[in-house]
Fold:
Amino acid sequence: MKGKPLLEVIDLGKKFPIREGLLNRVKKHVHAVSQVSIKIYPNETLGLVGESGSGKSTLGRLIMQLIKADQGQIIFIDQKLNELSFRKARQFRKKMQMIFQDPLDSLNSRMTIEQIITEPLEINRIGNRLERREKAKDLLDTVGLRKNILDLYPHEFSGGQRQRIGIARALALSPSLIIADEPVSALDVSIQAQILNLMLNLQKDFGISYLFIAHDIHVIHFIADRVAVMYLGRIVEIADSKELKKTPKHPYTQALFNSIPYPDPIKKKKYQPIQGEIPSMINPPSGCAFHTRCPSVMERCRKELPKLRVLDQEERHEVACFLHD
Structure:
């Protein structure tokens, strides 16, 4: 990818304390994100995929500064967000917006559609009320909804329509980056395709970059330019989307592809679900976290932690696995 990264995350880490006993003392920690480094370039979609509980949503919220990281750097448009004051960070936050998983829960049921979409504009003191209303109409048209719904409420719409309203709200401040946290997982398959195509069209029209978080690797493959695979708080593989599907290197990535039923009755494919459960983030396994479920585990995997390294510079393929040493 040419040019400077729009967003660069360097060795990001986050642990959540678990308090126990009468004195409410910290006894253990949940290791949610560990030494994560990613880059997102202008007009690019980076897909972040992994099972539930792998730390994907936590990473998105860390980047948005909704929760503070324990270690590492978040550099957005050449500024270290971790080191900015609240006032300066708020200015940069206008350029970074979020789309949430459940469109009903993420929209205030007591607010009209106009209030929901224009709230970011009002908070940042952009335009007067009439100008903000006209802006809301334009945004609704952009996401494929009628302009005359401004005075209605979220419960009067379908799931797909509510997600379009959420996208319109995210577009209100003309962001450079949108973090989409499982934006289609709560929708029917046909509606999923509509929302994904809408997001692709918006990217072409406005040059937006996405961090697209999902557990379905085929959804990620459809929308993403590059894909980062996350397991138990760590990135285990990063590659171009087509390259990853063609030659996945990490056993976990291979298992993700193999665990999805193939939707073609003629081309039969053996369905191979991933064996075992994802380990606890409170007591993660030693060495490679995937060794408890890996079909190719070696003794070294149980003791040493593999580091993410470049396998193919031309294809920008990185993997954290001793099988490729």
Notes: The chain has a mean pLDDT of 91. The chain has two domains: 7-95+176-191+202-324, 106-174. The chain is about 30% helix and 25% strand. Residues 248 and 254 are 6 Å apart (CA to CA).
